[in-house]
Amino acid sequence: MDKVVRTAAEAVADIADGSSLAVGGFGLCGIPSVLIQALLEAGVTDLEAVSNNCGVDDWGLGLLLRDKRIRRMVASYVGENKEFERQYLRGELEVELTPQGTLAERLRAGGAGVPAFFTATGVGTQVADGGLPWRYDEAGNVTVASPAKEVREFPTAEGPRDFVLERAIIADFGLVRAWRGDRHGNLVFKDSARNFNPLCAMAGRVTIAEVEELVEPGELPPTDVHLPGVYVQRVLPLTPEQAAMKRIEKRTVRARGGQG
User: For residue 95, what pLDDT is reported?
Assistant: First the structure.
């Protein structure tokens, strides 16, 4: 039951070229930065990453993107990463943009054993009708577009309504970061760093969690556990320096005393 691994390199050693990854975090909050750095150093390439966004140009998944290690991205937000935008528009990266709530539920469904579900989000748009550009060529022509999805009418309290079928996401590996964790893989996330982390952990066939504080089994009150250890296969304890390394996407400051 002891799932602790000694190093980040050991934690990601079996992640091979072409693997799919579900990566926790929102912006730069709660991203598994140590595991991402280990993947970068391991030289793994041709990856498909599923995450809310792709970090920034010089941090998080943006590091893998910068070195052309990611061939396909499933995300809800291009955001602050200019290289993400450039590669997508130049035909160097395939991107499946997905509504944020739908992305969250697709990950959760993958972990819960639900193969697909119907949602109202996207009905009447290209999300349901197909035609969203997934890949461009260098001239800006669409070479791969999203397929049409099944739309079905269901009764609701307001009357009949259309819903679109969305498929669950299951990734080869889940990479997440937790505030506290025990040797059995039970995890607690800190405030907003909880975000997509439990969902990505659920969606991974093999999930690796980097934890800022490792505790012994029994030290976490059961009511405090956000993700049970059944979803986690490896636990990487971080050093105090690694745990403290947290980037802020945008810092806004003002002069002391409220002036300026």
Answer: 97
Domain locations in the chain? 8-115+170-244, 116-167
First to last CA, the chain: 56
Rounded Cα gap, residues 163 and 35, in angstroms: 38
State the pairing for strand pair 151-154/161-167: antiparallel
Cα(146)–Cα(160) distance, integer angstroms: 26
Low-confidence ranges of the chain (pLDDT < 70): 258-260
Q: What is the pTM of this model?
A: 0.93
User: 8-115+170-244 has which fold?
Assistant: Glutaconate Coenzyme A-transferase (3.40.1080)
* Residue for token pair 């693997």: 19
CA pair distance 60, 69, nearest whole angstrom: 13
